[in-house]
Amino acid sequence: MPSVLIVDDLVSIHEMLEAVIQPTGFATSFATDGEKALVRYKAEKFDLVLADIDMKPMDGITLLKQLKLYDPNCVVVIMTAYASTESAVQALKYGAFDYLQKPFRVDELIATLRRGLEFRKFQAERLGAGMVPAAKSADIDSRLVGKSPKITKLIAQVKKLATVRTPVLLIGENGTGKSAVAEILHGASGTPDSALVRIDCSLSSEANFRAGLLGENGEGGAWVKQAKNGTLFLQHLQCLGVPVQKELVSVLRNTAHGFRLVCTTSADLELLVDEGKFHDELFYRVASLPLQMPPLRERREDIPLLVKSYSIQAANPLFDANLIEFTDDAMAVLQAYHWPGNLIELVQVVTKIAGTTESRVVTSQQLPLRLRELKHWPSLAEYLVGQEKQYIDLVLHACRDDKAAAAKVLGIDVAKIG
Predict the structure, then answer these.
(1) Does residue 234 or residue 85 have the better pLDDT?
(2) Could you tell me the pTM of the whole model?
(3) Rounded to the nearest 5 degrees, what angle is found at the Cα of 62, between the Cα atoms of 56 and 65?
(4) What domains are there in the chain, each with its CATH number?
């Protein structure tokens, strides 16, 4: 029988909750403050914790933080009075599963506990399965190419998140690989026949969004039903209007744990929350696990590996694209360019060259002109550590041995150019 630890400083609340919860199949235990609850949880490890937010000496938020430190997978539902709703929303930021606003309906309470229990079981199953299977781990490594510190960190985070179904927010510029990560997470945690439902919030009209995602009764439309046991992928979340954001919160409260939710944004949502342009509860519901996608200019050392990978994938009727080589000066240009389009732009450049070149060896002169324009190149301080001499020589060559011009591009004193 699943167990619930009820934490409230009013004994009358304990009695009332016991009367409505036990008949639905839950075993109930009680604590009158946060400190006692923490001791009991460590001793007995309950399936769920239902805690009031306003208690002394340890309040519900502090208890939540302490429980998460002890057991990151604990499922905590916060109870709050209307006046404390803002604090309850903040609790989502610290990992609360959900909150209930007093006075709440019995059916709402039981539905929330059942969703929490379902989520707890899902976590236990994923943890019991151990690490990501080798085949899926290999897929992650093949799709997220690179060995730079930032991409290595990202790969490790993705492998960890592949074992849970907590909402994930992918943050980064366009073209940094957010869709690839969403597809990886879906493949790692979804069932073979589950769907990845992809919705671009920047393209969907408000009417379509309401019909497809919100539904008529705010319980989820066709998109939510299609995503059940799979993944709901909301791209460009910052493009949703505030009224729709508020309605989306209601849908997520009722349905979010029936699927994996992955969202993307190229904006600072936390800043938008502060400015009143993004709903705070929606932010905390989608941003519990944020992943920062590094732009290509911050992982220049990965470009040779990426170029090789994209070259192999490209078709060339003249010879095997796997045999294409980029000269040192061509590769230096590729690493110097600022890549505003990130991976998408790099794919386009490499695919075109690999698919059309009549020479097995690609020089810098065969690269698009925009890549060779010095205004797009970084200063020496922004380039790669350990390759300063190579980069100085490349810039000097591009400046036709004009040391003053090269020093201006590099952001260094002319005397430092040998």
Answers:
(1) 234
(2) 0.80
(3) 160
(4) 3-128 (3.40.50.2300), 134-294 (3.40.50.300), 297-416 (1.10.8.60)
